[in-house]
Amino acid sequence: MKRNKSFTKIPFYFVATPIGNLSEFSNRAIDILNNVDFIACEDTRVTGVLLSYYKISKPLISLFEHNEKEKALEIIKQIQKGQTGAYVSDAGYPLISDPGAILVNELLSNDIYISVINGPSALLPALIGSGISTSSFYFRGFLPPKLNLSFDEESCLRTRKETLIFYESPHRIKKTMSYLYDILGDRKVTLARELTKINEEYLYGTLKEFLTFDYKTIKGEIVIVVEGSTISNEDIIFENSKKQVSLLLKENYALKEACKIVSLLNNISKNALYRAFLTDK
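Given the sequence above, the corresponding structure tokens read:
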């Protein structure tokens, strides 16, 4: 067990940066970046624009997904020599669908204290403006490149009562919305894009409605906010069982046999499953 009071010694800072509107950068964040000895960042070109805007000049260390372990060790050596530093990602909070997790753990393993400086995030504005429940939510971030979640992962998303939140890029948004409809069914959904910028926009509808939407009009990074499950646990088990039967049918099982296997696994009615498939036909 550890108990670190961040400011009993100078910590290493993780600083949230603007997601579009540069004027959202806090005075505290600016002061910290002005006073540390070096800044580690996801992309030196992107961070260079931010630092130039605020007239901050510091040595930069490029730390991104594919060199994070190596650069984390380099940063630790700098700190052990008495240097102070901070890490920023391109936009929003480090580690939230961005690099930084390896760096955090390496710092903690070397008894280096950490402090996180609050700032902009796409996640919360999208949720608050979505018109969908904010009482609890599940943040999934970006789905896999091939949109190929396992059956268990799809079932988990399908059954969650919490509001679901995803990040997506404009070139893949159409496929992702279709995939979400396939695994979740029709639900309320809000797309939030270009947050904090002049073209900020919220699009409200259902997953089914968005199947025919013209996505050529969508530019910029997107947050997808989807209504959580509103069906009963019994209905969730039944729907998951139907999907399991469908998988067995693809493996050339007979319908009656597939229904029998799944009914035994999930303790549900074999006949009800069988009738559901006959009705669907």
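The two ends are 58 Å apart (CA to CA). Try to locate this feature in the token string yourself.
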